[in-house]
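Support request, priority: normal
Reporter: lab tech (M.K.)
Component: structure prediction queue

Hi team, I submitted a job for ABC transporter ATP-binding protein from Actinomadura vinacea yesterday, and the status page still shows it as pending. I've pasted the exact input below so you can check whether something in the sequence is tripping the parser. The sequence length should be 272 residues. Please let me know if I need to resubmit or if it's stuck on your end.
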Amino acid sequence: MSKPESDSKSAAAAGEQAAVRIDDVAVRFRTRKRDVTALQEVSLDVAMGEFVAIVGPSGCGKSTLLKMVAGLLKPTTGTVKLRGETVDGPRHDIGYVFQRAALLEWRSARRNILLQAEMRKMPGDRAKARTAELIEMTGLTGFEDALPHELSGGMQQRVALCRALLHEPPVLLMDEPFGALDALTREQLNVEMNRIWRETGTTVLLVTHSVAEAVYLANRVVVMSDRPGTIREIIDVDLPAEREYTPTLAKPEFASVAARIRELLGAGGAAD
Ligand SMILES: Nc1ncnc2c1ncn2[C@@H]1O[C@H](COP(=O)(O)OP(=O)(O)O)[C@@H](O)[C@H]1O
Ligand SMILES: [Mg+2]
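Reply from support: The job had stalled in the queue. We restarted it manually and it finished. Here are the results:
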């Protein structure tokens, strides 16, 4: 279960370990042709079990931010900590979901999920039991033996999500995971994501271009500026953890948070 925002703030104040702590980070890319500052003065604490969404214009450093948390990229200055430990190389205690499911075409849904276990040399029994649980949790029952090309885009993303959750990572990073899906499938996966987050208790960092998706799913929404990406504002979403879709979107709190995000992004910004 997520903590209410007030709790997570006081937890941070009391020095309780944050799931993710980003402290005054800058990322600069120097190539022969260009010198790009992707992120600048970015600080963010994410409490254990919290769901944080990140929105911002294209190219403002959102993917860079997630890669840094995963340890796939080092900040130029500043530090990133995962559960109190400085990130200084690829981390195994995270799950990562991308816009494309990137499944192996010759492997069934179940065996694509089990790939995670093989890479991590997880005990077979535990991996199989966890796979069965996740298949049920994500509504893939009956499709365990299907090959990726036999699955819809939404189903493929469910498989990718199971694969990312197999080793029970305390932190799940999602980079526009539902961006390639049609609107209805996306809504359906949003509803499932809210339930999966509550059931697993995992901390989530979600990058999205959809304001509705951000507000529906998150405890807090981080709004970033144009490149060099800085945090313009962090907005609390004061809604209960369990969120029915249509009633939630009809709430005044939902509308006011969404309006504020759109204002920050500017007319014609990244909102869709
Ligand atoms: N490995 C890299 N080398 C050079 N420039 C990069 C690299 N990765 C990202 N960039 C640049 O950093 C900026 C931020 O990229 P990215 O994090 O992918 O943005 P976003 O995900 O918000 O669209 C972009 O200008 C991009 O071109
Ligand atoms: Mg990106």
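The chain has two domains: 5-93+169-265, 104-168. Confidence is low (pLDDT under 50) at residues 1-8, 268-272. Let us know if anything else looks off. Ticket resolved.
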